[in-house]
Specification:
The complex is a heterodimer.
Chain A lengths: L11 E10 L8 H8 L8 E3 L5 E3 L3 E7 L11 E12 L3 E10 L10 H5 L5 E3 L5 H10 L8 H13 L15 E9 L7 E6 L4 E8 L5 H26 L12 H10 L14 H11 L1 H25 L6
Parallel strand pairs in A: 8-10
Antiparallel strand pairs in A: 1-6, 1-8, 2-3, 3-5, 4-5, 5-6, 5-7, 9-10
Chain B lengths: L1 E6 L6 H14 L4 E6 L6 H4 L14 H5 L9 E2 H4 L15 E4 L12 H17 L2 E6 L5 H9 L11 E8 L2 H12 L4 H7 L4 H6 L1 E8 L12 H20 L7 E6 L2 H5 L6 H5 L6 H13 L10
Parallel strand pairs in B: 1-5, 1-6, 2-4, 2-5, 6-7, 7-8
Antiparallel strand pairs in B: 3-4
Classes of the chains: A alpha+beta, B alpha/beta.
Bound molecules: adenosine-5'-triphosphate (ATP) and magnesium ion.
Chain lengths: 320, 306
Amino acid sequence: MGGLGTPSGPVLACGEVRTRLLPTSDAVDERTAERLLRLRTDERVRLSRHPNRYAVSPGLLTGVDCRPPSVNGASSRVVGTVTARAVLVEGRVLQSSAHFSAPASGPDRRRPWGHYLGRPGCLIPVGRLPARSVAEGFLAGPGPHELDVGSIAESLMARVCRHRILDFDLPLTTVNTSLRWTAVPAVEGEATSVLFTKADDGLRTVALRLPHGTAPAAVAGLCEDLALHDWLLTTVAYALDGLPAGHEDSGLPKVLRSLVDHLLHLWMPRGHVDRTLHAVWEELDEHTGYSRQWNVMGQRIRDQLVLRAVRSRHQPSAWD
Amino acid sequence: MLVLAASDKGGTGRSVTAANLAYQRSLDGDDVCFLDFDFGSPTASAVFDLPDAVVGADGRGLHSYLQGRTSEPLRIDVWARTEHPALRDRPSGSGRLVLLPGDRTGGEFPFAEADRHRFVDLVLRLRHEFDLLFVDLSAGRSYAADLVLAATSPHGGLGRQGNRWLVFHRWTRQHVMAAAELAYGNAGLVRAGAAMGHRPEVLSGSIRFVRAAAPDLESPPWSQVSPAQYVWLRQCEQVLEELAAARGICKARVLASIPLEPVLQWQERLITDEDVHDHGIAHHETLRAMRDLAQRLTDDEFWGPW
Ligand SMILES: Nc1ncnc2c1ncn2[C@@H]1O[C@H](COP(=O)(O)OP(=O)(O)OP(=O)(O)O)[C@@H](O)[C@H]1O
Ligand SMILES: [Mg+2]
């Protein structure tokens, strides 16, 4: 199937990305990353080293035949597969990402499975797709008996996390985030747009309008990158929030070290994002000020480290 | 770390004490999650003062999650939602305090293998976000206790996590015997755990007892009773200590004794600093006992293979 908004292509793509620290005391090497993400025997784990170490599992398909989410309770039905994959960044941050795309309409009667399986990651409506209602409903979260893409992402996450090589000796507590996204083609002649929201419990939503022809898989890649950087910010902000503001006696708080050891070097926006979508990141960054906030926090951590180092040199410790 | 709060009998003070421990640890800066598996009589929402927050729990609580009816169990941020006046302003330096309530209607139910997997996945996922997870189990060798026992066995998925059991009991003959039976009896945790693959000495080393609502004879009102009463009380105390030791609850296995606290006698609630220092309604000893116990949960000196 073609890109968003092309004649035979989808009119809507939706997905969810869950982001966590890999549950180990240390980042894992490339071989371990490969073992963790080898979810299928017939397809290899994709590894790349530039601009940072990045491993991607083969795609897994989940067959569905159900009601899509909707805001107005419009009854409709979609059949096909949702595709999911796991991503490991620098052997340290684990993401699971599930998405589907859907055309404006499909056959009026449900066809045999064979009809749907030829188009992996595609959900075909029986009849017409109430695209707008589905997009809004998707961001609001599934109701009972509606398609739950988040749970597909979560079970993939859980599957990777159950691996016996993970020691669960986590260096710091973090926030588990979920990012739900929808993408529709921008109206001809109009600019692309991105609408980002943050809710409680680590839930984020992103509503995108993108150029015609954008491949759903590229959108999923963009959203994984957004989710990663939002998670980094959330996690570092959370860790700094609980930090005592420089009590004289306190040694180097463990959490500062953990941030430096495990997270600070991971900021690399657009590292693995399709070129055509770089502008979306920039627009989002301009609205949210993410990069500036990250730089400020990074500087604050380094300042704290320097201050504490200076202090410990000039003050005889209680043990002398 | 997973802290499993169990008791043989009902009404031992298990839920109220466990909730207070969770509260104390989060005050200390730990990120704490409280899972209400007390499917028979959920009290956590009352203790944390969350009257309306749990109304939404039907169909989204822990029962529903474990049985696969919802993929996201309801989470309630206690600091944000509580109506307890002393808790509304979250103290600086405190950690997260989150309640995962049970469904309001539900009761006990037998678990299937798939439920154990869901429990394991949930705990693993919460491990990222929390330093301490408290699980309040229903009284007795409940289905919930079996589920947890299976999940924490070496091949159950959570076998390599630090898991610690607290067995709560009141300070009476019947309660002492029942608590010992729950831990070491024929149908107790250690035997049942061994059948599921636990190493008995390891499991036994992760079980400690908490005497809840135990009168402290050295402080008022008990220290001020008539001499005859005092002597009689001391004798009873002595007999109880001997009984406990004979049943395997030796001193080293008693993690704490929480004094009988009038405030808790009247109300299921958190004991706060204000209750003791500003309002003067709760005893300092109670607060201190809760705090000490909260610290001991992660102090290896109090835990070991005996
Ligand atoms: N230290 C204490 N002093 C006095 N009363 C207490 C103390 N601890 C708990 N209580 C009271 O004892 C009663 C039973 O406590 P709680 O509900 O915590 O017990 P439980 O073991 O969880 O019971 P259940 O089996 O019904 O869940 C409550 O009214 C509680 O407020
Ligand atoms: Mg209870």
